[in-house]
Amino acid sequence: MAELDMEEVRVAEKMASIFHSDKEINGIIDIYSESLTPYKRGHLHAFIAAWTALEIFIAKQFKELQSSITININGATSHKDFSSRMISVMNDKYRLADKFAALSNYYDSTDADKDIAEFKRIKEIRDKFFHKMEGEVKNLPLDQTRQLISKYLQIYLEKKYEGFVFQRATR
Questions:
Q1: Most buried among 29, 117, 149, 158, by the most CB within 10 A?
Q2: DSSP 3-state assignment of 75?
Q3: How many CB atoms are located within 10 Å of the residue 119 CB?
Q4: Which own/partner contact pairs does 132-135 have at CB distance under 8 Å and 24+ positions apart?
Q5: Neighbour-count burial of 170, counting CB atoms closer than 10 A to its CB (0-12 exposed, 13-18 middle, 19+ buried)
Q6: Maximal C-alpha separation, the chain
Q7: pLDDT, tens digit, for every residue of 115-141?
Q8: 155 to 29, 134, 140, 149: CA distances (angstroms)
Q9: How far, in Å, CA of 49 to CA of 31, rounded?
């Protein structure tokens, strides 16, 4: 084990404080943590935990951010009246992929298009397995799902808690 430096201690202390005070994220983290030990309950349980955490995170974040969404037409932001009307008409009819796309773009991720494609790929594999009984448990994309939820949890925490920045490993 390597020695912790003071910056790592500060980040860990801030994360503990956030997880203690932010009950919604705390619940998502609890579910997500079940995905980190596939050797305990199996790959299927771990995948379901990662997917469930991702789905809950998307739903909760979309609900909070829905009023901030703008509609673009041919790359240009539409009039606020049009955007408001579209949001009103859609109300709760958004698909999960739509919510993720809005969330990804809202967080201004430089990889939004890549992340949206990855989300759709994971969801397609998940849907085939659970709805059509196609595929093998071992082929469920656990690592990719964990990477996606982890990335967006980090972005969320850094945006919500000003001055808080995750240390990221260099590759």
A1: 149
A2: coil
A3: 23
A4: none
A5: exposed
A6: 57
A7: 999 999 999 999 999 999 999 999 999
A8: 14, 33, 25, 10
A9: 6
Q: How big, in percent rounded to 5, are the helix, strand and coil portions of the chain?
A: 75, 0, 25
Our CA angle for 146, 162, 152, nearest 5°, is 15
- pTM given for the model: 0.80
Please give the single-letter amino acid code of residue 56: I
Token representation of residue 148: 């996606």
Contact 45, 34 (CB under 8 A): yes
The pair of structure tokens assigned to 77 is 């932001």
Q: CA 33, CA 89: separation in Å to the nearest integer?
A: 37
